[in-house]
Design brief:
Strand content: under 5%
Low-confidence stretches: none
Shape: rod-shaped
Number of helices: 10
Order of helices and strands: HHHHHHHHHH
Number of strands: 0
Structural class: mainly alpha
Oligomer: single chain
Mean pLDDT: 87
Length: 195
Amino acid sequence: MLADGSKLKLTDREMVDFSLYAGLDLPEETLAQLRDSAGESAARRRALNILSARPLSRRELEKRLAEKGETPAHAAAAADYMEHLGYLNDEHYAKLLAEHYAAKGYGPRKVRDELYRRGVPRELWDGALAELQEPDDVLDALVAARLQRIPRPDRADLKRVSDALARRGYGWSDISAAIRRYQQEHEVEWEDETF
């Protein structure tokens, strides 16, 4: 407890670094440094608790720490420390996100959107996307699932399927190739040869 009655939660690091003992009179400058060090330690503890729940990007972690009341400097220092320990790794996180959304049937554009939304640096996107398999098998399964229920698909049906796949993040060339493969495999003739 400080002379003014306030409490300061300290770690062993602060106790040793500042050579603290009961009854020690601290000059204002040393007290300010002690408070800053204690704040940084609190941010580290909070960062560890946040990252123990689920992985995050550095930007997400710093944002969460700021929402919890940490200063930007303490949040950045805590993120640096978590990176040093290996608990925070944007490259690994980008790969996890890409795998997760690809497994859910989303295309490269949707994965990029998620990487952007979650604050993963752009220079890591290509590496994460490069490890994903080609979307042909996934697209073929999605097209088949949607078109098998329709006895004679027409232009409107094809547009609905292609729009749904585009919303999932696939490009037009991949979508039209998947529809053509479906047509050849199931020997379906479209009324309108737009694909």
